[in-house]
Amino acid sequence: MTRTAPSPDQPPRRPLVAILTGAGISTDSGIPDYRGPNGLWRRDPEAEKLVTYDAYMGDPEIRRRSWRMRQESPAFRAQPNAAHEAVARLERSGTPVRVITQNVDGLHQRAGMPERKVLELHGTVRKVTCTRCHARSSMEEALARVAAGEPDPACLVCGGILKSATVMFGERLDPQVLGTALGVAKAAEVFLAVGTTLQVQPAASLAGVAAEHGARLIIVNAEPTPYDELAAEVIREPIGSALPRLLAGLAEHPSN
Fold first, then answer.
1. pLDDT higher than 90, residue 111
2. pLDDT band at residue 228, thresholds of 50, 70 and 90?
3. Which residues carry a binding-site annotation for Zn(2+)?
4. What is the pLDDT of residues 187-212, one digit of tens each?
5. What percent of the chain clears pLDDT 90, i.e. is strictly above it?
6. 128-152 pLDDT, tens digit each
7. 213 part of the active site
């Protein structure tokens, strides 16, 4: 596809920047990752049962433990860090930005990214949903009920089992959200994969889709990923310093 260069009196055209983020972007906010060297799944393999759909639905004790885990989750105390703020700053600069996140913490939105520009592949921890009638309500309200003595609060609408509005192991991703993310990956001219091991499918495949459709793929992650060889640039520096510098450069030189 041939692109027409802007005339001298026109500002340079700003490319669509897609940013796929994983747990690594939120570790500076005090939220531990899952699969890194010190990740939760490596430290406590049993913890994975708490977010596995069949185990959660079939065992009341698993649900009670899950609610206790949510009460203690650092996600509700966490604040956006320099990396989240840099993403929001890039969007405010006039650059077309879409965030595709594997995280459920809502920190991109709290940093100032418009909700409509954030695709939450794995849902959000800030809402709960009924597994029977699909009514949604706030996690804050559900946790208040747990604190008041309900160890496994039921849906107030139909009495069904409540769960976090996140995608548990054994559940499918929302096909509409995934389809929109796929469209963004195909349209992006710059695609950043930040703080993700790129091992969880189908989210990880978005990096490959973007590269196949001509995007400049940049990977910012502490550990190697299966997509490193497709990347135009791989950055191993700490995300909190590397990403703001990288995004500032994109804002200043949008056509690069």
1. yes
2. very high
3. 130, 133, 155, 158
4. 999 999 999 999 988 999 999 999 99
5. 80
6. 999 999 999 999 999 999 999 999 9
7. no
> Which segments of the chain are extended strands (E)?
17-21, 97-101, 118-120, 123-130, 136-138, 162-166, 190-194, 216-220, 233-235
Catalytic residue from among 122, 134, 213, 253: 122
Amino acid at 16: L
Annotated binding site: 130, 133, 155, 158
As assigned by CATH, the class of the 1-31+79-122+172-256 domain is alpha beta
pLDDT at position 3: 42
| Strand-pair partners of 193 | 20, 219
* Among the listed residues 24, 47, 62, the one whose alpha carbon sits nearest the alpha carbon of residue 197: 24
**Nearest CA among 48, 77, 36 for reference residue 239:** 36
The topology (CATH level 3) of 37-77+126-166 is SIR2/SIRT2 'Small Domain' (3.30.1600)
Provide the residue ranges of all domains of the chain, joining segments of one domain with +.
Answer: 1-31+79-122+172-256, 37-77+126-166
